[in-house]
Amino acid sequence: xxxxxxxxxxxxxxxxxxxxxxxxxxxxxxxxxxxxxxxxxxxxxxxxxxxxxxxxxxxxxxxxxxxxxxxxxxxxxxxxxxxxxxxxxxxxxxxxxxxxxxxxxxxxxxxxxxxxxxxxxxxxxxxxxxxxxxxxxxxxxxxxxxxxxxxxxxxxxxxxxxxxxxxxxxxxxxxxxxxxxxxxxxxxxxxxxxxxxxxxxxxxxxxxxxxxxxxxxxxxxxxxxxxxxxxxxxxxxxxxxxxxxxxxxxxxxxxxxxxxxxxxxxxxxxxxxxxxxxxxxxxxxxxxxxxxxxxxxxxxxxx
Length: 303
Description:
Layout: H1 12-21, H2 24-31, H3 35-49, E1 54-56, E2 61-63, H4 65-88, E3 97-103, H5 105-122, E4 126-132, E5 146-151, E6 160-167, E7 169-173, H6 175-181, E8 194-198, E9 206-210, E10 216-220, E11 222-227, H7 230-238, E12 244-247, H8 252-257, E13 261-263, E14 272-278, H9 286-301
Parallel strand pairs: 3-4, 3-5, 8-11
Antiparallel strand pairs: 1-2, 5-14, 6-14, 7-12, 7-13, 9-10
């Protein structure tokens, strides 16, 4: 039997607190230790491991690649220890703890909101931290348990991804814009129109279509506005400022009322897919598993 180093776990909890807080000062406030104590403990941990875990500057604190791998392992060990304690104390059914979820703004306010209400009612001891934004978050560095991402296709990564739902991608304009600028009969005419583009796409000005004859069209549009907010795209489109492309899932009322007109209905566009994304862990915390299972169950009822 190999001898276990009695200092094997020293500094592990403080290290995860530093990462989740984003600074030594934040970790000190959470743990009740001084900032200098936290800094010394992290230095001792790095020396013992023989690895640099954190890149430090006067303003930022970032994980190294070794630090990311160690952080994931530490989280798992701490979650397992908490679950073991809960089991021994007979509280395994009382799911609790902090759950951090990142989600696009419109999707969170629309589709996700009623599911969150149901989740919080069922698990009142879970502390939900909801980060609504449209950027691609770094789950490990920012301490996010689950992210919801929209994409035509996710890039390969070490993260686990689960499909949540699919939505048709529509090209839209307001009647006022079309009356002023004319109605394009095909995507090839978009170069003569003003478009409102979503900045977080890999190439916001590249709009792809497939014609009724099966021809793939790669259109370069002229952005009048480039924004990171789908809500702003929609608002500007309704104001008659240009043509947009947005998922159909949030546009039922605008289409039904005639406030927006759908263009190029005979042309196919790759759909937008919403994914649940989370770090790979052998033993997932109960609160995270329950949240993921609940969202997947809800999405299966809407297929």
